[in-house]
Amino acid sequence: MNNFVFHLEPLLPWWLIGGLGGLLLVVALYVLFRRLSGAFLRLLAGALLVFALTNPVLEREEREPLPSVVAVVVDDSGSQGIGERRAQTEQAVAQLKERIGALSGFEVREVHVGDASDDSGTALFGALSKAVDDVPPDRLGGAIMVTDGIVHDTPSSPESLGFNAPVHALITGEEDEYDRRIVLERAPRFAILGEDQTITYRVIDPRLSPGSLVRVTLRIDGREVATDMAVVGEDQVIDLPIEHAGRTIVELEVEPAEGELTTDNNVAVADIDVVREHLRVLLVSGEPHAGERTWRNVLKADAAVDLVHFTILRPPEKQDGTPIHELSLIAFPTRELFAEKIDEFDLIIFDRYQRRGVLPILYFDNIARYVRDGGAVLIAAGPDYASTASLYSTPLGGILPAAPTGNVTEAPYRAEITELGRKHPVTRDLPGGDSSPPSWSRWFRLIDTDVTAGDVALKGQDGKPLLVLAHENEGRIAMLLSDQAWLWARGFEGGGPHGALLRRIVHWLMGEPELEEEALTARADGNSLIVERQTLGSEKPDITATGPDEKAEPVPMREAEPGLWRGRIDNASLGLYKVSDGKMSALAHIGVADPVEFREVVSTPDKLAPIAEATGGGVVRLASNNGSIPRIAAVSRRASAAGSGWIGLKRSDATILKSVDRLPLFSGLMGLALLLGVFASLWWREGR
Length: 688
Description:
Elements lengths: L1 E7 L5 H21 L4 H15 L2 E10 L2 E8 L9 H18 L3 E8 L10 H8 L8 E8 L19 E5 L9 E6 L3 E3 L4 E8 L8 E8 L2 E9 L4 E5 L5 E9 L12 E9 L3 E7 L6 H9 L4 E7 L22 H7 L6 E5 L9 H12 L3 E5 L21 E8 L6 E2 L28 E6 L3 E5 L5 E8 L2 E6 L5 H4 L8 H12 L9 E7 L2 E7 L8 E4 L5 E4 L1 E5 L2 E6 L5 E6 L4 E6 L18 H6 L4 E3 L9 E5 L6 E2 L2 E5 L4 E10 L3 H20 L1
Parallel strand pairs: 3-4, 3-5, 5-6, 6-33, 8-14, 15-16, 15-17, 17-18, 18-24, 34-36
Antiparallel strand pairs: 1-2, 2-37, 7-9, 9-12, 10-11, 10-13, 13-14, 19-21, 20-22, 22-23, 23-24, 25-26, 26-30, 27-28, 27-31, 29-30, 31-32, 35-36
Helix pairs in contact: 1-2, 2-11, 6-7
């Protein structure tokens, strides 16, 4: 297209041209007033002379029109996968590109918007803004959104859009959709073991009248524990028992309704991290010795441990005439500790303790029962365990996994991790244990035993057992068959990892999930599912994962460390996964437990109607138009952009300059001829 532009490029300063023009105007007024002959020709000559000094120029511009940009924003969020919405979307987008492409002067920018990683919902307007941020406002012909209408970033006013163009919405889904859902109103993120937690939920069903009852099932870690009849539309409260440390996954599922859109939001999930508030440990030292302080320091350094420590300074059989009031700081409360309150302790440690009549035989029966019912005992043995007063000769011996031979090895050796110990979480990666010999100091005493149960994780001289870890019914037992861990703590010959070893033993005894030797865990890593199988076995575990679509798939596993197998499923679907090896199972939830995207799934034009109306656009439900998009028309920037059965896109007035041709009107022969003609006429007139 060609445009003609007229402008002035003065040869003299404007003030000088203006002065000359003013002078000629005065002369002209005088001549006209006196009515002198030839006045008209004189005025014309003067005017042409002044006009010539302004140097008028005529330019011809060759311009190329720029196309209008049309943003087609496609909603690919999770709710678009319901029913026929995805197919409606694909059909509408194909028709849009075809029909807009048939219009001259329009360019399509297609933008796809999925689920937000931060669970902020469907952000179509944020994606629209990014897609056209390099487009001048006068080139934007409009925006067409293909969505189910569940948009979470709709602006409150059209001014915030930053452009003056219509926003149209093509709504997928059906007119009479219905859905029932369950919503967690309050759920704990963290919990303390043994303390009941409260969960508040609500069932929403627009078709049921207030006061209607629906069945809700409660599952904890995949196990159904209760059912409840919930009142629709009202907050319901459940007191949740917390029975183990680690992760607890709670599911609340409302029974499905006939004809509802989806059952994906019929389940609400709470992922709770459970910790122990206090670990109560009873440490009984049979006599003062160099290693006693080491045990105390390790336990007191753990903020989660409440330590009760007794040291027997003088056994009852010793008689030396010392007054009774000087024998001890406090009486040993044997009945209170080992009969009345024994079940309040998470762990009992006997440190170089031997049977001397301080504890009646009956109390050892209580301790054995305490272990079988889920308690834990640690025997830190010294020469006492090989003597005739050994704890093995009490009723406690029936559950101890290592029987003393009566011999004590007094020779230097280095503790070594056994083949089994390299797979056990307690000893697997002890600092310094991967070299041969290990890079830690020597010990000089080992209690000889015959292991009858459990796992030997550390060995001493000649491969003799040093650390034995065993299960007894619901409880656990650990035996450290030397009393010289204090050499590591004191830095003898460079020391060793006494803190890591003793702390892991203590926490394994108290059932910390991270130290289980046989465990299956699953967790989310973004949109990936991570599966870990800890085992002391040598065979590759066979793991399957069942996703929210109830389809099972194998998990490829590889040995990440000795005894630790790890697998990964990338781009896992959002929802709850159950992994199993046939014996154990674990749950993991991919994505947030209560995603914004599925809180409302009924398609609606109501959210986009205000902004469409404010910008001059239209909202059309595709299903009401037989799945076809409305007619698309190109309109001027001042015309209406929507009507019955059609939507409009505004043409752009923007152009790009291709070339310029200049024609100075008073330059060259044409200007000279014009001036000469006027002055010649004036001379001729005067000659008469």
